Each structure stands twice: as structure tokens, then as C-alpha cells.
Amino acid sequence: MKIDWFTVIAQIINFLVLMWLLKRFLYQPILSSIDERETNIKNKLLDAESQKKEAAKAKDEFNHKNEIFNKERDELMQKAAAEAKSEGDKLKENARNEANELKDRLEKAFAEDQANKNNNMAKRLKDEVLDMARKTLTDLSSVSLEGQTVEVFLKRINELQANEKAKFSEALKGGKPILVQSAFALSANQQGVIQKTISGLLKTENTYEFKTRPELINGIEILTNGYKLSWSVTDYLKSLEEDVEAGKKVEMDTNE
């Protein structure tokens, strides 16, 4: 079999031209497209990885912020609860104190009211007893009782202490008369005895003035230049009244 080299060479040339044409116009664009697509895929994969990392970072930041928020929220809630409890305790304490204060005021007002009632009753009883005593002693006054009154008064003059004698003597230096007042009229003899007793006690001579004062209730008093010496049932009643007042004050102090 005879080979047609011209045809073979032409076929080879045609094949080479075909291959070049295919490479130039077909394979090269396909390969470029494949490379471009592969590049795009790689870029997208890189972008996806980057986005994944950013998403993970964002998630971590969100979780961290959420933890901080939860912690701050819990702290605020605990603080609010503590403040509410403290305020509640304070309000309850204030209410308790106000209630106790009101109770104390009511008890004090009640005690004062009872004390006033008791004081008023005691004052009425005291006044009635003293009035009865004054009336009884006034009704019992007699000549013999008047004589005893003078005797008791003279005894009191003679028993004056040194400091009282000094006050009496000092009062007489003014030269004023000695005023002798009595609940009953003194006889001349009784007046003389009183003058003699005073002169003997103080070693002085003085002028005297005698007056009657029924309110002394069977009593006698001496007045001169601001000095006073007396004895009467009134003094005893006044002493009794002072004792009653003192006893009442001690009782009130004890109750408090």
C-alpha cells in the first residue's frame, strides 16, 4: 500500500491547526472560566470563613455583654431589694416608734388626768379637814384655853435660841414699839406679864401696843421692825397643810 505523504502531512497540519484553534478559542476560555470560577469559589470560601470568624467573635462579644448585663441586672435587683427591705424596716421602725410615743403620751395624759382628779379630791379633803379643824378649835376657845395660850407663848419667848434673841434685839434698835396681837383680848395682868418677860429676856425697856386679831385662832404674835414671833393654832394648821403637800409631792415622785 502506497502512502500519500502529502495527504498525511496535510492531515497533520490540519490536526495541529485544529488543536491550536481549539486551544485558542475553546480550551483557553474554558480553562480561564474554570480558573476564574475556582478563584471565586476560593474567595467565597475565604469570605465565608472570615464571616464565620466575625460571627463567632460577634457571638462571643454578645455573650460577654449579656453576662455583664445579667450580672449588673442581678446586682441592681439585689441592691433594690436591699434598699426596699431597709426602707421597709425603717418605715416599720418609725411606725413602731410613733405608736410607742402615742401610747406613752396617752398613758401620761391618763396618769396626769388621774393625778389631777386625785389632787383635786385631796385638796378638797384637805380644805374640808382644815376648815373643820379651824371651826372646831374656834368653837372650843374658852377663858381657860386663852390662859394656856398665853402660858405657851411666854414659854416660847423664854426658850428662844441665841440667834433668835439676837434678831429680836437687833429689830428693837429702831426704836419702834412692839406690837402684840392676839385672837382674844388680853387682860392687864397678861399684858404686864408679856412685857416683863420680854424686858427680862432682852434687858431693854420698850413701848408696847396691843391689838386683837380673831383670825389668829387662839394665838398670839409679836411684831416689831420686820421681826415676828408667833404661836397660834393657825401655825399648826399651816404646818399640817405643808406636811400634806409634802406627802403628796413625795407620792407623785414615787409614782413617776
TrEMBL record:
Belongs to the ATPase B chain family. It comes from Zobellia barbeyronii. It is a single-pass membrane protein. It comes from the Bacteria. Residues 41-128 form a coiled coil. This is ATP synthase subunit b. Keywords: ATP synthesis, Cell membrane, CF(0), Coiled coil, Hydrogen ion transport, Ion transport, Membrane, Transmembrane, Transmembrane helix, Transport. It is found in: Cell membrane; Endomembrane system. F(1)F(0) ATP synthase produces ATP from ADP in the presence of a proton or sodium gradient. F-type ATPases consist of two structural domains, F(1) containing the extramembraneous catalytic core and F(0) containing the membrane proton channel, linked together by a central stalk and a peripheral stalk. During catalysis, ATP synthesis in the catalytic domain of F(1) is coupled via a rotary mechanism of the central stalk subunits to proton translocation. Component of the F(0) channel, it forms part of the peripheral stalk, linking F(1) to F(0). The b'-subunit is a diverged and duplicated form of b found in plants and photosynthetic bacteria. The keyword Cell membrane applies. The keyword Transport applies. PANTHER family: ATP SYNTHASE SUBUNIT B', CHLOROPLASTIC. F-type ATPases have 2 components, F(1) - the catalytic core - and F(0) - the membrane proton channel. F(1) has five subunits: alpha(3), beta(3), gamma(1), delta(1), epsilon(1). F(0) has three main subunits: a(1), b(2) and c(10-14). The alpha and beta chains form an alternating ring which encloses part of the gamma chain. F(1) is attached to F(0) by a central stalk formed by the gamma and epsilon chains, while a peripheral stalk is formed by the delta and b chains. Pfam families: ATP-synt_B. Its main location: membrane. The chain crosses the membrane at residues 6-22. InterPro entries: Alt_ATP_synth_F0_bsu (IPR017707), ATP_synth_b/b'su_bac/chlpt (IPR002146), ATP_synthase_B_chain (IPR050059).
